[in-house]
Amino acid sequence: MAPTPVILDVDPGHDDALALMLACGAPELEVRAVTTVAGNVPLGKTTRNALRVLALIGRGDVPVGVGAEAPLARPLHTAENIHGESGLDGPELAEPTFAPDGRGAVRLMADLVEASAEPITLVPTGPLTNVATFLEEHPRLKNNISRIVLMGGSMGLGNTTPAAEFNVYVDPEAARIVFESGLPITMVGLDVTHEAGAGPEAIERLRALGPVGEVAAELVTFFAGTYRKVYGSDAPPIHDAVAVAAVVEPGILKTRPMRVEIECESQLTRGETICDLHGIWSRPPNAEVALELDREAFFEVLYRSLGELVA
Questions:
Q1: 239 is catalytic
Q2: Of 38, 214, 222, 242, whose CB has the highest number of CB atoms within 10 Å?
Q3: Residue 102, exposed/middle/buried by CB under 10 A (0-12, 13-18, 19+)?
Q4: What does the pLDDT look like over 110-131, one tens digit per residue?
Q5: Number of compact structural domains in the chain
Q6: Smallest Cα–Cα separation from 125: which of 204, 21, 216, 28?
Q7: Domain of 62?
């Protein structure tokens, strides 16, 4: 089968970096572009980090579009307490020798989606600002979007507030636009990505994969240190890579169609993803919501894909 064309929208971030590596190493995917958004750290840093990861794995051919520097309607909330000041603290990564695409994120998305002979899958792993802006500015291109597989939200507790997961909390208005777009959406939320915790055994498996695996192991090691301090866990979940792996191998997730609404008004529950598991609202489903992860299968996709990369 031909590889699935994808555009990754990212805010690296340690787990975004691993998601990028997985996507570029997976023969099942064709990475048409990477777009960056402010999230885990401000936009200049997320863009630098995306370029550094692509340079590490020899993928300077992938265009990088610089996106939104702030949410649609709110000040930016960042996560240096988890990802460090650079957003990718830990291993020393060389500076990239190539620059971002001059078109910017939304124009780059639009050009690639319009020109594609087959529908493109969008894989956002950060706040949904770029994707929402693209959908608002280019509604006629929706027909050439296959689906959106996003890391965000939660059916249970949040990680930024008790109610909200980080990506949706940062820009709930953008999330609402995306979930109301009518496009096929798979929501890979915190309650499922928490099953993808990378403990010492996973770190050693990564380290054994060669130079790229060594960097991945160092990223997870730093991530584990901050997760231990903030959440008391020694096995940080590689959240964003789960969304990418679900495009590579959809069978790793058990999902269920349901209505998902985004809370934008309440200060107490801003960014909460309210998932109607039992159809109480009698509203049509707007997303396939992940319920379970085959953890072993996920890590096999991760190891196999990173093993394809050569620094």
A1: yes
A2: 242
A3: exposed
A4: 999 999 999 999 999 999 999 9
A5: 1
A6: 21
A7: 4-307
